[in-house]
Amino acid sequence: MSDDNSSTRRGPLGRLYHGETAIDFYGRRHYGFIVSGALVVITAISLFFSGLELGIDFEGGVAWQVPASPTLDSEVARSVVAQNGVEMANAKVQTLKSGELESIRIQVGDQSSEVRSAVQAALAVAAGVDINEVSVSSVSSSWGRTITEKGVRALVVFLILVSLYIAWRFEWRMALAAIMAMLHDVLISSGIYSLFGLEVTPATVVAFLTILGFSLYDTIVVFDKVKDNMERFSASRTGIADIVNVSMNQVLMRSLNTSLAAVLPVISLLAVGSGVFGAVALREFAVALLVGLLIGSYSSIFVASPLLTVFKERESHFRNLRGLHASGAELEHMVVTGNATGSKKVRRQTEVDTGSSQASPVAPGSPLTHPPRPRKKRRR
Amino acid sequence: MTRRRLAITLLGLVVVVLGSLAGNIVAGNVPSLGLDLRGGVSVTQEPVGEFDSESLDLAVERIRERVDSLGVAEPEIIRQGDAIVVNLPGVDNQDDAIELVKVTGEVLLRPVLLAQVVDGLDPTTNGVSTTVAQTPTTTVAQTPSTTDAQTPTTTVAQTPSPTDSSTTLPGGPARPITASSVADSTPTTTTASGLSTTTASGLSTTTASGLSTTTAVTETGGPPGTEAPSAEAPEPTGIPDPSDRAATVLAQNADGTEYYQLGPAFATGEVFKGDARADIIGGGWGVRITLRDGATGADLWNLGASRCFVKDTSCPTGRMAIVLDGVVQSAPSVNQPSFTGGVDITGSFAESEAKQLARVLRSGALPVRLQVQAVQAVSPTLGGDSLRAAVISGLIGVGLVLLFMLLYYRSLAVVLIIGLVVSGALQWSVISLLSRTNGLALSLAGVTGIIVSVGVTVDSYVVFFEKLKDELKVGRTLRNSAERGFTSAWRTILAADTVSLLAAATLWWLSVGSVRGFAFFLGLSTLCDLIIAWFFTRPTMLLLARSNFAVGRRILGIGKSVLTPGGSA
Asked: Quick one: A197 and A311 in the same domain?
């Protein structure tokens, strides 16, 4: 215990800095599950009732963007478009601010090119600008479908490949946990988009894919540590909860650093890029990235690893150690030394505390290392 | 790993990176920017219905020719699966762009009313005498009988059922093409802008006004056939849209040496089977092709051929033009009134010309029907703003990250910063090179990919540094820790990067549009990350750990308190 003294004197930030935290993630796993569960339920409700607002790239349609002028505001624009015989019931008219420039974007369903050009010309006249200042985008609905289908297919293939890879490189339980955490990220990200009525554009999809990659990447780094520690602790009688807890604490600083390193440019993109310069295209990216990164960082800590613990606990090797896990000083000792056997005293203490309340197959306070072999108990 | 080998590795990488950077700078290669960053128009087309891939290749080629003829700077013509994406930076009128890229493999057979070798005369005036200005050098003739005895004709395996789906019509022979599948609902040929640049101005003015009416029909994308009847109806206007087969149109040949006034098409390339091939016929290069049987094949062809042979008013010159996308490929005179089975086109062809004509006829036999699926226009100011904002805010963001790393890892972060610079130089070189050679363009999605890659690269370092600290903490020497730390960090980095590469590869193969661009840059930056980790970080750190410079310094941001207990182990 004596070598722990120096670190226990540090403040929480200092311990974080020196990688000596002892946060009992396992013991608090229910908070993560409850929060995630609630978010998933909210997402499901929101998706069911309001759905996702898909951009024209996925549903097909036409969008005009015209610089706003004293003669043209969104109401005028709306009527100009309607005068050309365009069905305006589902039309979306937005005012976009880009720096000092303000522009109006009108988005409607699929139109013939004749109507497209006519509206473009009419808008240019109404705004008093050159016709080339009015930009038009159009996507046929069949192409929109193709894009969506291809995207979904690519995603499914990707999921299968990644699962196989993780199952081969690590083990299938880790693959399951990682994929579930990733799906959780996608679901909640889309839930946020649905809830706030943000439009899903190809930029959003690209950003989300980035996040998926990042979330997986993050999770894999944690799992790599878990695998490492499973080998290291395999000789000692250490539960999966402890192993995951230790691993989490050991890589916590890495996770935080990485997340920060990823989030900083995105925040800069959002604040400087779209805030100061007012680049609209950037905002789409940045918002999706930010949402995804935050959820990704959260899920690799509070979803993926706890899920792995839950799965692993059912394994025969760890089943008997369920419910046993170290916390506080003992956990800290394990984190710092990477060694399970260093502090028997504390260990025994905690086992008395926790073991008696939970039905453990091993008698409280027993120094046994291999619970399935009761004969040894007698001999000892 | 000896010190020398590490040094050589490090030196090798630095030389390679600096060399490629310098090479690119000397060669003037810079990353070219995508549409969303510089403004322009992007048109995506996809074939509908049946087509073969040769026709699609030909269509891509045709588009490229037309785009090149306009002199658009750095156009990007990409095939994504079956879709053809044409990016035209700097073009701000999207109607021009659409007209430019709309091609079909549709081959029309039209009687030549009038031919005029270019000599500065305005070909549009009707005052030109009706005599043919130039004796046609090409002829069509029956394959087996007349021209050439040497050919063992493959002709006519008298299968009764025509393979073409658009058979029906018992139609009056006067109405040339009734095949409904060739309706105008597919994006057709026209080229307002294409023509206007290459032809006499008299031509362009006549065609231009007709465009708005035709495009309305052509690109709404209804199912083929629905609008066929309107194509049948005689157009009240006399505007010669080259794709309107009922109209009399003006056209020129591929090298612009001859102008033609062409009558209504009496058939399409679909009268032929797709077996056209270039061959030596009667001592010179020619094209041999087989007619389809029945009402949609030989009958249609013979109807036209017989008229041209007798030079009646519908075909006064006796020549029949083979027209692809408004360009006359060949205008042979007809040597006999009726054909069975094979047709030979002979004349003063070079081998390459014959092969090209055979290709055109093959694709004309089963033309690809492209449909405009998406049009995207970005105004140059908007694009430029996005780029400036992305670059500035990206740099600020990266600066913040580096600042944070400096605070956290102290002097170790210098290695990280140099690594990032090397990585950046490497990526810049690759992107510049690919911009030049493969027409790669850096899009907003790509810029995002790169910004994210900064995160990934930084993370590789963080993983390594954290492992290094772990090793030091349990009391190993710096040198030992660096080696062990890298070995285990490399395993982690490899596993995580493999997942990123899997993602990039899957998205690259299976998706379309901006996602694909993103996938490319993700893959590229992940590869760079691996290269930097192995060839830069490893030798640098291992050498540093051995040198006297690092020993005894608190370079790692690790408190003494941790180092002391087992510091000398």
From this structure: yes
Give A111-130 pLDDT, tens digit per residue. Answer: 777 787 788 888 888 877 77
Cβ–Cβ below 8 Å for B373 and A202: no
Provide the shortest C-alpha distance from residue B132 to chain A (in Å): 40
pLDDT band at A379 (very low <50, low <70, confident <90, very high): low
- Those of residues 159-198 in B touching chain A at CB distance below 8 A are none
Return the CATH number at A67.
3.30.70.2040
Q: Burial letters for B128-142: b for 16+ Cβ neighbours within 10 Å, e otherwise? A: beeebbeebebbbbb
A267 and A131 in a single domain? The answer is: no
Residue-number span of the structural domain to which A241 is assigned: 2-53+143-316
Cross-chain residue pair B510–A153, CB shorter than 8 Å? yes
Of residues B409, B418, B559, the one with CA closest to residue A254 = B409
Asked, for residue A273, whether it belongs to a domain, the answer is yes
- A142:B221 CB<8 A: yes
Shared-domain flag, residues A233 and A311: yes
More confident residue, A283 or B18: B18
CA A213 to CA B526: how far, in whole Å? Answer: 11
- Residues of chain B with Cβ-Cβ distance to A113 below 8 Å are 95, 98, 215-216, 219-220, 372
User: Best-predicted range by mean pLDDT among A5-14, A39-48, A90-99, A289-298?
Assistant: A39-48
CA distance B393 to chain A (A): 5
pLDDT bucket at B383, cuts 50 / 70 / 90? low
Out of A146, A216, A277, closest to residue B385 by CB: A277
Asked if residue A204 and residue A72 are part of one domain, the reply reads no
The enclosing domain of A188 has a CATH number of: 1.20.1640.10
Final residue belonging to a domain, choices A264, A298, A316: A316
Domains of chain B: 3-35+379-563 (1.20.1640.10), 97-233+241-373 (no CATH)
Q: Is residue A377 part of a domain?
A: no
A288 in any annotated domain: yes
| Cβ count near B258 (within 10 Å) | 20
Q: How far is A113 from chain B (nearest CA, A)?
A: 5
Same domain, yes or no: A208 and A287: yes
Question: Are the CB atoms for A45 and A119 separated by under 8 Å?
Answer: no
> Given an 8 Å threshold on Cβ–Cβ distance, is A261 in contact with B388?
no
Domain count, chain A: 2
Q: Are residues A209 and A176 in the same domain?
A: yes
Cβ pair B515:A154 closer than 8 A: yes
d(CA B154, CA B146): 15
Which has the higher per-residue pLDDT, B186 or B352? B352
Contact B565 A3 (CB under 8 A): yes
Domain end position, chosen among A316, A344, A370: A316
Residues A34 and A123 in one domain: no
Q: Which of A210, A218, A300, A335 to mutate to test the interface with B (most CBs of B within 10 A)?
A: A210
Interface touch B496/A19, C-beta < 8 Å: no
Instruction: Answer whether residue A345 is part of any domain.
Output: no
Alpha-carbon distance B87 to nearest alpha carbon in chain A (angstroms): 13
Q: Are residues A223 and A271 in the same domain?
A: yes
